[in-house]
Design a protein that fits this description.
Layout (H helix, E strand, L loop, with lengths): L6 H40 L2 H6 L5 E2 L2 E2 L1 H14 L4 E6 L4 E4 L14 H8 L7 E3 L7 E10 L4 E8 L3 H9 L4 H47 L11 H57 L6 H33 L7 E4 H18 L3 E4 L7 E4 L1 H18 L5 E8 L3 E8 L35 H11 L4 E6 L3 E9 L4 H9 L1
Parallel strand pairs: 9-11
Antiparallel strand pairs: 1-2, 3-4, 3-7, 5-6, 6-7, 8-10, 11-12, 12-14, 13-14
Helix pairs in contact: 1-6, 6-7, 7-8, 8-11, 9-10, 10-11
Length: 501
Amino acid sequence: MIKLGSLYSRLTVVMIVLFIAIGLAYLALVFWSNQRYYQETTQNLNKSLAMYIAGRAPLIHDGEVNEPAMKELAELVMVVNPIVEVYLVDTSGQILTHALPAEEIVRSRIDLDPVHDLLNQQRPLPVTGTDPRSINGKKVFSAWPIEDHDQIAGYLYVVLEGATYQSLRDSLQGSYALQLSLAGLVAIVFFAALSALIIFAFMTRPLRRLAQDMEHFQSTELQTPKPVPLSGNEIHFLRNTFDAMKSRIRDQMTKLEETDRVRRELISNVSHDLRTPLASMQGYLETLTLKSNKIDDQQQHRYLEIAHKHCLRLTQLVQELFELSKLDAGRTQPHMENFSLAELLQDVSQKFSLRAQEKQVQLEVMPVNDLCTVQADIALIERVIENLIDNAIHYTPTGGSIQMTLKRHRETIEVQVMDTGTGVPADELPRIFERYYRARKHKDPAFGHAGTGLGLAIVKRILDLHQCRIEVISELGAGTCFQFSLPSQDALPSRAKRDSA
């Protein structure tokens, strides 16, 4: 189906208008050329007419106009050829006499320049001159000088397209020939329109198919935020689609470059993180293997404990890498359910209570008046809180404290994990959720080095799946506060009702 405004319809309309314009211009040219041809032929055949009339009798004698002879000759000529008009003018162009009703003459003087051009043959035919019966009209004529005592005393001026010819030509404007010409023009335009429809249909068919394929590609593969509908000019549609594809490709190239950078960073960091515990484990195990007879039981037990700690660290690193890769690949989808956030905080704090006691860090959950029921994936949110507490214990020195609080807002429950640790420099805050990023000069006393650097990245990915935002407030040397909000189960019905409205 051809749509209005498409390239095909526009080309067809332009071609039809062009053919109409060409046809009208051709008709105008034909009428003009026919008129010029008629004038040239008439003037060429009758250019001696004034000479013959002037030779029949003296029209000016001793400076006087021979009125009877002039009127007799004029009436005779006009009876024989009704389309001519005879005038006698002086050497300045002033009309001296004629045989026409005086009220029909609107100009008393004619321009003699065309008369001289005709007599001297200085211009090609047709030569048009003044029409005394029209204000601005020009007509072909015949002229001849009138002599008196061997001197030019005036001119006989014969208009070859008089008023009779003009009225006859006007009456023929609706003649059969003109109607036939117009009918021919209509037939030509119709044929041109039909030809344009057929020709442009074949010429634009590949473009229309390409536009349709691009529309399908855009809606299924490209998946632009606001697909451009296939309407109007196909070229404009293709240009818009190309711009969308260019933008998508540019974004993908940027993401690929970023992914490649992260991949190289990942390989470098993983290599480093794996190499350190592996080298330590290998050293202690080789020592036990080679010098088992020379090392007492207490020393052997200490070496095995250190090797076990490094083994646990490797296990944690591999698990977090696997978990983060699933989150990045989109293979982890949250399973929403209603649960008590207050109870979850208590359960998680119990898991870390022994570790906090060993480090002499106070870990407490601030009491709340209700259960603070939220809708989220309980396992993923538990992982978020565990990573935040683990991070807080890492960077909180001995004697410090960690507090977990819940705050109810109108439609959300806000979770805060605050510590009195070393804090994060302001210039490093924007990067703390990056994979493998660790605040500089911050070491874990338990292992002599920082954590895996993946915990906060996992936190960010999980909260992104829940469409939640996490905020960080930190002061160097005073502590850090992580906070995020989850939708309250009590507010979900009203929110759903408001969104549907």
